[in-house]
UniProtKB/TrEMBL annotation:
Keywords: Iron, Iron-sulfur, Metal-binding, Pyridoxal phosphate, Transferase
Reaction equation(s) it catalyzes: (sulfur carrier)-H + L-cysteine = (sulfur carrier)-SH + L-alanine
Native species: Rosistilla carotiformis
Span of domain Aminotransferase class V: 6-372
Gene: iscS_1
Name used for this protein in its record: cysteine desulfurase
Length: 388
């Protein structure tokens, strides 16, 4: 990455922490045994490392280590959760409930299930990206087989108050899946306290390596059935077969530990940088508006800032600031020339959505970078407005 680039796109991905890379290296160079080789010491050592990593993951996120399934990332985890549950031969209910602001990793497999004959209810949200509890309760029926609602939104950073919604669903014996990709490592999570049945996340969102993630699948008390989507091996209780990657798994566990350690203080530091960025932009650019919850709200993750820049296209503003890495929405949709479905979902018009940028502040950002980002964005905006 060029030294002069200021990286403020930490919702798309985060830099792998050097301490995470250090934890991974031994499993790439020395302890490289196949963890499923049970006939020699190298395999035993790799298997033991994975078992220890799963123990750490359960310690930080709750649940039992046997309830955590290693995947290639949140997209696979979400597909496995939704398709694996809904298409299980013993799950005969055909109604799914989700929200308009969900990530495509949720909406796309649900759309596939709709084509297979499932009935889908997509709930609207308010200007802060929140679901109305009463509307949610009224949507549930005796035929509702699963609810999927994200814990933290990937564009506007809004945190769903999931706990009461899960309680409402459980009163009708309906399991709940949550896409926690943007929440893990940013807010404290205990799956046992949350009482969620299925949870998805990716390591690369919390300073771990790409290509590895987690699916929590409750086995204690409420058994959540999952039909495997891959075949060809007996690994991970046959739910998700394939040779496991000790280096990536150890890196993910280390990354999670580093995030959990001092989480409150780090969130305060990041929130202070975000406030500095917002105040600096407001001083230079009249008419700026925040998309989603207020910055002083407890309903927004600390590093998120989604801003509407009046009178300019967000994509054009990014092009005019080539030394600044930000985005106009989900990285998964960056090739599609469409307005953000999240911003449209919270009531923004298409021109307003197209005028917005998503900024994600993270662990490695500094005060100096924030100040330079203010100058870059403000100078680019003023130049675009001047020359139209």
């Amino acid at each position: 990455m060029p030294d002069e680039l200021i990286y403020l796109d930490n919702h798309s991905t985060t830099r792998c922490d050097p301490r995470v890379a250090d934890a991974m290296l031994p499993f790439l160079l020395d302890s490289y045994g196949n963890p499923h080789s049970s006939t020699h010491a190298a395999g035993h050592a790799a298997a033991a490392a994975i078992d220890e990593a799963l123990r750490q993951i359960a310690e930080h996120l709750g649940g039992a280590k046997e309830e955590w399934i290693i995947t290639s990332g949140a997209t696979e985890s979400t597909n496995l959760a939704l398709l694996g549950h809904c298409l299980h031969p013993r799950n005969r209910k055909r109604h799914i409930v989700t929200a308009v602001t969900e990530h495509p990793a949720v909406l796309d497999p649900i759309e596939m299930l709709r084509r297979e004959g499932f009935r889908v209810t997509v709930l609207g949200v308010d200007a802060n990206g929140q679901i109305d509890e009463g509307q949610f309760a009224d949507t549930l029926t005796d035929d509702t087989g699963i609810v999927s609602l994200m814990l933290a939104n990937n564009e506007i950073g809004s945190l769903h108050p999931l706990k009461p919604l899960i309680e409402i669903a459980h009163q009708r014996d309906i399991p709940v899946h949550t896409d926690a990709t943007q929440a893990v490592g940013r807010v404290a999570i205990d799956v046992a306290d949350l009482k969620v049945d299925l949870l998805s996340c990716s390591a690369h969102k919390f300073y771990g390596p790409k290509g590895v993630g987690l699916l929590y699948c409750r086995r204690q008390g409420r058994l959540t059935r999952i039909q495997p989507r891959l075949f060809g091996g007996g690994q991970q209780r046959r739910v998700r077969p394939g040779t496991m990657n000790p280096a990536a798994i150890a890196g993910m566990a280390t990354a999670l530990h580093l995030c959990t350690e001092g989480l409150s203080a780090e969130n305060q530091r990041i929130a202070t940088l975000r406030q500095r960025l917002w105040e600096g932009l407001v001083q230079r650019i009249p008419g700026l508006e925040i998309n989603g919850p207020a910055l002083d709200s407890q309903s927004r993750v600390a590093g998120n800032l989604n801003v509407m820049f009046p009178g300019v296209e967000g994509e054009a503003l990014m092009l005019a600031s080539p030394q600044l890495a930000v985005s106009s929405g989900s990285a998964c949709n960056s090739l599609d020339a469409v307005a953000s479905h999240v911003l449209l979902g919270i009531g923004r018009s298409e021109p307003q959505a197209r005028s917005s940028l998503r900024i994600g502040i993270g662990r490695f950002n500094t005060v100096d970078e924030i100040d330079r980002a203010i100058t870059m964005l403000a100078d680019a905006y003023e130049q675009m407005r001047r020359f139209g």
